[in-house]
Amino acid sequence: MLDYPLLAALAAVIREGGFERAAVVLGVTPSAVSQRIRALEERVGAALVVRSQPPVPTEAGARLCAHVEKVRLLEGELASDLPALAGPGPGVPALPVAVNADSLGSWFLPAAARFSEATGALLHLVLDDEAHTAARLRSGEVLAAVTAEPAAVPGCRTRRLGALRYVACASPAFQARYFAEGVTAAALNRAPVLQFDRKDGLQARWLRQHFDQALTAPTHQVPSTQGFLDASLVGLGWALHPLPLAAVPLAEGRLVELVPGAGMDVVLHWQHARLGARLLETLTREVAAEAARSLFPVAGLSALPEPAPDPSRSAPVPTDPASR
Amino acid sequence: MLDYPLLAALAAVIREGGFERAAVVLGVTPSAVSQRIRALEERVGAALVVRSQPPVPTEAGARLCAHVEKVRLLEGELASDLPALAGPGPGVPALPVAVNADSLGSWFLPAAARFSEATGALLHLVLDDEAHTAARLRSGEVLAAVTAEPAAVPGCRTRRLGALRYVACASPAFQARYFAEGVTAAALNRAPVLQFDRKDGLQARWLRQHFDQALTAPTHQVPSTQGFLDASLVGLGWALHPLPLAAVPLAEGRLVELVPGAGMDVVLHWQHARLGARLLETLTREVAAEAARSLFPVAGLSALPEPAPDPSRSAPVPTDPASR
Predict the structure, then answer these.
(1) Where is this region: Disordered (chains A, B) (predicted)?
(2) How close, in Å, is residue B12 to chain A by CA atoms?
């Protein structure tokens, strides 16, 4: 067997973001933490931690951390079957999961709540662009991820969840100011547009898809799902918003859809470590159930049922990978 | 004068997150970008960019980038006075500003909208913990910040905005399940609690302040302001939420305050580069006006007016610095 006190020191340094904090968690001195990590590095024959602020794992270090987190999860399940085994400490297993901001802000949380209710387990959610959540699974930082990546990460299972539909919206005052003469590509490029962050290419892809034009509009950056919606509501700019969030302000007339029916779908997948851990299976079941309720089915190679008729949702539009 | 084409190449690499993307923006080849940065490094006699993915500036590189962003802002203002001066390109100045997530999610955006409406300028918002936004100002990544740091960053002006009040809340079902026998320190440490991320010590500080106890409760991590509120609404855990966000669900009975009147105030400050730029002055005015409306006045050394009587707000509580 591997030397778990050494591995636990490594994982604690990465998880806690520092040698001192890891020492507090482990109940040893910071110099003991350093010694354990040096001992592990000598055995492995490679550097495991870049001593930056905060410390970051090398590739080898990340693999070892991923291993520790998996063992910890399995131990957590064992402890719930055999309570006498559980040592001191909280003992409640926590599942690290990467989610894109728009999923967290629009459909993911009811699944998380049912999972937690059923299992008593905790979730440590990590936010990232859906184009990058799979990398966090690959590095072992998380054990499951909502991702735009359909191909299974090594050691993981993947399943398609469905499409998160986006609609291009603005406030009525914004529409009156910038689109009084119609929503044309030229008008869209004159009006200020919102971008989640530099990686967010959704607005540009939508303009390309529906108007065959490059996006050159002046751009605000607002890196928060709800802040993004609020920024459209107060008239800062037009933008694509997830339909589950935009539906109510659209129905109330506080937002207007710029080109009715011209939505854009982002297909999401669920990937999780192939561990046979009950916690992961329960979370997978709840996530799949919530996705079936909240996301749009995706037409694949074979015929699939049509999206459920829902008057608040516009007609489906071909799928396009996106970076938010 | 400094060599601005070289400086612009450096700033573009950092802003765009890569040599290729910087080349596209500058309209030159990636190798021209590399040459310019090497030339600048030779003149400065120091490395300016760590060639990682994405590239990150060294301390010297960050200072040069900060200088470029300031010059660009001043040029943007000049161009609006002397349109003939403006070269090709969008020409709309964008102001990089760091904001903590809870401010963005609760009170900041109306000020941003009025600023943008009045000036036509763009905002590039960067999210960080209010304990860390001042560091982004110090590094020159942003020109203004909402921060918990009262002392002026070198080259900046600082002013106190007021206190963002937090209240400890849970859903009624959660309260019935975990606090049927009263909200005691023991019950609070048995019930699952939410944490924004590892840096978020607000719940622990609240428990220490009102119950003189350490927080040992099982902890979910949900790193999104609105997601944090939604997680309490669906019953994932109890947590401290900004009063401007929690007020409506509290009034509607979808959240309950765990210990009525036991809020916690986080004092926020506004710091901005001392530039004499009109854009910064306009934004400062709008931010101060919105803060006066939405935040609580802070009792200082001298007598200050009482908070405006507002039935939806509980009695003021002594100030405590916090990390969210």
Answers:
(1) 302-324
(2) 13
